[in-house]
Amino acid sequence: MEIEIINPYVIKILMSARNKDSISSISKRISLSYGWTNRWINTLIKEGIFKQKWRGVILNEKNEKYQNIIKFIKENFNDVGFYYSVLNLIGIKYCFTKSDAVYLWTEGRYNVARYKEYYPIFIKIKKSDYKIFLEYCKKLDLKINSRKKIFYVPEILKEFKCVKKNGFFVDTLNETIKFMQKNIYNFEPALEIIEERYNKRLNIKYKEINFL
C-alpha cells in the first residue's frame, strides 16, 4: 500500500464508512466533495478495502490494509477532541447536553468535575440511530458508560430538539440555562459567563467582591 493513501481524507472515509454504503452518503458525512470522495474510494477499491456494488460499495472489513488503518486510528485518535469531532462523521442525530452543553455555550470557558482519568461526555442519541452509534463505537473502540477515562453517557430519545454551535449539535441555550439553574451550586460561575456573553438577565452575582 502506498504511503500517500494514509491521509486525512482516507482516514475520514474509513471512519465514516458503513458495511454497505454509497459514495454520496460518505461524501455528505465527511463534508468532502463527491469528486474527491469518489477519487479516494476508487483508490481504496484497488487496494481491496472496498468492493463495488451496484450504486454503492461494500466495506471489506477482513482486508489487512483496512485493519491496519483502523488499528492506527484506534491507537492515535483517542483523546477528548476525537470523541467530540467523530460524531459529525458517522451520520446520526446527536446532541450534546448537560455539562457538555454548558461547555459549548461557554465556548470552553467552563468545564466542571471532569479530568483526564474521568471524562464523561453527555449526549442525546436518536433512538432509531442508536444501533448505528453502537456499531461505530465498537469499530473505533469508543467507550460508553465506562466510568473511567473518556466515555460517552448517552441518553436515548425518540426525538429531541437541538441547535448548532461551533460546528456541533447541542441543547438550546435556554434549555442549557435551565439545566444550570437546576444545578446552581455547580454552574453559578457558568451562568455568569452566559449572562455576560449572551446579554441574558439571570441575576447572577458570583464574582468575588474585593474588600479594602
Your description of this structure?
It is elongated, with a radius of gyration of 20 Å. Strand 2 (50-53) and strand 3 form a beta hairpin. Helix 6 crosses helix 8 (173-182). The chain has two domains: 3-76, Winged helix-like DNA-binding domain superfamily/Winged helix DNA-binding domain (Arc Repressor Mutant, subunit A); 80-197, Beta Polymerase, domain 2. The model is unreliable at 208-212 (pLDDT under 50). The protein has a three-stranded antiparallel β-sheet. A three-stranded mixed β-sheet has the order 4-5-6. It has helices at 8-16, 23-30, 34-46, 64-76, 80-85, 98-105, 130-140, 173-182, 184-197; strands spanning 20-21, 50-53, 56-59, 94-96, 118-126, 149-157, 163-165, 168-170. With 212 residues, the chain is of the alpha+beta class.
List the helices and strands and how they pair.
Layout (H helix, E strand, L loop, with lengths): L7 H9 L3 E2 L1 H8 L3 H13 L3 E4 L2 E4 L4 H13 L3 H6 L8 E3 L1 H8 L12 E9 L3 H11 L8 E9 L5 E3 L2 E3 L2 H10 L1 H14 L15
Parallel strand pairs: 5-6
Antiparallel strand pairs: 1-3, 2-3, 4-5, 7-8
Quick overview of this protein structure:
The chain has 212 residues and is α+β, with helices and mostly antiparallel strands. The protein has helices at 8-16, 23-30, 34-46, 64-76, 80-85, 98-105, 130-140, 173-182, 184-197; strands at residues 20-21, 50-53, 56-59, 94-96, 118-126, 149-157, 163-165, 168-170.
